[in-house]
Amino acid sequence: MATVMAATAAERAVLEEEFQWLLHDEVHAVLRQLQDILKEASYRFTLPGTGTEGPARQENFILGSSTTDQVKGVLTLQGDALSQADVNLKMPRNNQLLHFAFREDKQWKLQQIQDARNHVSQAIYLLANRDESYQFKTGAEVLKLMDAVMLQLTRARNRLTTPATLTLPEIASSGLTRMFAPALPADLLVNFYINLNKLCLTVYQLHPLQPSSTKNFRPSGGAVLHSPGAMFEWGAQRLEVSHVHKVECVIPWLNDALVFFTVSLQLCQQLKDKISVFSSYWSYRPF
After folding, report:
1. Rg (CA), the chain
2. 224: part of which helix (H) or strand (E)?
3. Would you indicate the residue range of the signal peptide (predicted)?
4. Which of 51, 89, 112, 142 could make a disulfide contact with 194, Cβ separation 3.0–4.6 Å?
5. Domain for residue 287, yes or no?
């Protein structure tokens, strides 16, 4: 029995030494790695023109679709804002070609990009608060930090991967329809959103429902992409979506950012797993 207890004590001493090395050395190594990765992610969002404090450069992207050529155009992205949108729409009923572009004094903020960038900045701030001189006392302290960082990274990723669901009246009242010159026809709605690494444009063509219509009016709820047949009420008029056109363009640096988020989340989880392995040896006291 004494031999077993001695072996257990020696074993625990080794584990305690390994755990202290983990707290004092490996944790900070992982934190440095996380900061380096997230700074790279942050640079993708700022995209400076000249120097780190310069204005975000303008990037042009061509809208395209593999299923339709009804909508074509070029979008100009400047950081988290669309500074220009130049769009051609071929009306399916009569093949009339419509052209509309942002007014020169207008920009459209992409809230998804802005929010994702803010979450990255918050994650970097959390990590920077634990510099090399900081000594972690317990594994629980490390777990708490990792959970806080992972929460910010998950929120950043979700803002890019999960577009907001909007009702058609919300799209109509968003202000986007009033940014174009010439003004959009009354029977058109447009919406921009981010989905993963793509910037998407949806154009809805509408037609009014006559008071004598025998259709059962059912207002549609919120959706990322509404389908033909969706109905809504705007002003004193009831409208129905007749055609939907969706085109998109790939934003390479958004893809980079998503990869950085995934790698960072994996690093955080790996560190949490290592801490948790030791917790099983000290389950009777805080570790």
Report:
1. 27
2. none
3. none
4. 112
5. no
What span, in angstroms and rounded, lies between the C-alpha atoms of 90 and 111?
29
Tokens linked to 24: 């004092």
The runs of H, that is alpha helices, within 173-251 are none
Are the beta carbons of 30 and 269 closer than 8 angstroms?
Answer: no
The domain of 87 spans 2-282
| 50-105 pLDDT tens trace | 445 555 678 889 987 656 678 888 999 988 889 898 888 887 766 778 888 888 88
Q: Cα(282)–Cα(285) distance, rounded to whole angstroms?
A: 6
Lowest-pLDDT range of 18-32, 81-95, 103-117: 18-32
pTM of the model as a whole: 0.84
Of 209, 198, 183, the closest CA to residue 254 belongs to 198
Task: State the Cα–Cα distance between residues 50 and 56, nearest whole angstrom.
Answer: 9
28: in domain: yes
* Residue 24 DSSP one-character state: I
Rounded Cα gap, residues 8 and 67, in angstroms: 68
